[in-house]
Amino acid sequence: MKRSERLKPYIPWITIIAAVILLAIIAPSPYIMGTMVFVALWGVLAIGMGVLMGQAGLFSLAQPTWFGLGAYCAGILAARGILPAWAGIIAGGAFVALISFVIGIPVLRLRGMYLACVTLGILMIAQIVFVHLEDITGGSFGLKGIPPLSIGGFVFQTDLHFYFLSWALCIGCLWFFSNIMNSRVGRAIKAFRDSEVASEAMGINIPMYRLQIFVLTSVTSALAGGIFCFYLRFVAPTLFSFDLLIELVLMIVIGGIGSLWGLLLGSFVLTWLSEVIHLSFGKIFPTMTGSIDAILFAILVIVILIFMPHGLAGWVEQLFRLGRRSYEHLRSSLGQ
Amino acid sequence: MSILSEITQYAISGITSGSIYAIVGICWSIVFLVTRILNFTTGEFVMLGSMLTWVFLGLVPGLGLAPAIILAIVCTVFIGIIVERLAIRPVRYPSEITYMVITFAAASVIRGVVLLTLGTNPHTIKPFIASEPIRFLGASVTSQVIFVVGILIIITIGLSFFLNRTILGKALMATAINPDGARFVGIKISTLNIFCFGLAGGLGALAGIVIAPLTFTGYGMGAMIGLKGLVAAIAGGWSVTGTVIAGLGLGLAEGFFAGFVSSGWKDALTLIIMIVFLVARTISFSPRK
User: Fold this and answer.
1) B91, A306: Cβ pair inside 8 Å?
2) ipTM of this predicted complex?
3) Does A129 lie at the interface with B, CB-CB under 8 angstroms?
4) Domains contained in chain A, number
5) Residue B261 and residue B21: Cα distance in Å, rounded?
6) The whole model's pTM is what?
7) Which of A212, A240, A268 is the last residue of a domain?
8) Are A299 and B113 in contact (CB under 8 A)?
9) In the 8-state DSSP scheme, what is residue A235?
10) Is A262 among the domain residues?
11) For residues B232 and B247, is the Cβ–Cβ distance under 8 A?
12) Taking CB atoms and an 8 Å limit, are A299 and B234 in contact across chains?
């Protein structure tokens, strides 16, 4: 095997890591870095939800809830000085793992839109809990007094620090799930999505694998939540509400559920799109940019689902295929 | 206040909101039975009904209550039909998840447009008949409660007559039971889909209008009422009678819970009921082979 061929699977990873470092060098302004932090964090959420939806066939709407629980858990533990900040993020992940495991056992028996209804219910219940447990969560005004994140004397302060931290999580998450999907668990899950009867006949323990992937995606979302809470130094229930869910769904719709890279692309496109919308409509409707967002995004969801059902990634892929075919056509006609 | 009057008071408020959940639940079931779509714009129809009534009352000073209500219902029916034509019909790769996401998005558009045009302030509509509260077993009942319960009774009787006695209603039931068979005998399903969305829009708007004098109406009222209607429809097994019973039961449970335990957590109770019902459906007690 030639050396270049052996390196081939690493090329996308090297490209993305290089791109992340390059962007930090050429454009280290707080605005761009700050927006890219959100691209990475939403990317983690979208990858989790997209893996559940596209690979496991589970349409779970509770991703903002795991994100929020991770953020609240880390924030509360750090604000009360129970644990150091970095340990709070890990504790948040562990807590969400436990909760999603307990909830997943009964809930994952459901399929399709019933699962969606139940997870939507969980999302709404979590909202009510965040608002009404005022003594612990700070109620609807949000949790304040979260200390800065520090690991072994190094304090994360600037946007640039969080940029690297969040992209490390995002790329790690991408790598983790792409490996999982090529492992025994991933193959079992895909087999189940394609044919339930055949995979059960092969003796695959489907409920266990579904539960595993459900818990794993919840934990990555919770870790993203932990970073989010130390980046904003503030958490409020509205940050993890239905609006975030709509944005996540749009990221998945834009990116298409076919590939993990597409999901990251969806997060990138959506986050920058919303920045552009804020900049251009901010002057016309100064107080209501949020609802402008909601309307435009919702129209976009409908249009994409009707006209581009495989998402932007599928569309780009089609374009590539078309280009390659016409190139080959051209070459063969020139050869004659 | 004695315990009896307290119980009566909670029961009455429970039945009032339960009637609304029942009507909204019927809207969900009509669309779901015929088209197999979970239509998340149902809650927004409720909001549109009450908000449009308020708009028409304010816009045209001389307009009476009844014409404003009729105008609001007609508008909401049209919006329901537009949702079906613009967002549901053109989908090329239909799946239940696609439809669900699309109706989510359509609900978001409706809510956003109302927010932008009418603002965030809550509004009120005057009660239909101005009268003193009626005393009943130590509890006070406003006249609006009678309208709410009356509308539920009229809708239930009217719908069961419509579904069992008229040719269109029978076509709806046939499509719900077997879509392919219905298409086979010459029932035009695309027309029925439009009809169902229109009917859901009209009934939802009516529910919103009768409840508006008791609560505030605002752009955000639809989401929670819609979800509770969905709970009633799921718990009632998607049939009209079942949904009405489940809706009333849900309202009563909520009323007593809010009265005796905590009003802040009553929405969580509803959602837990939904989750329990959905999970319980999957459990079979016969041994698995």
Assistant:
1) yes
2) 0.86
3) yes
4) 2
5) 21
6) 0.87
7) A240
8) no
9) B
10) yes
11) yes
12) no
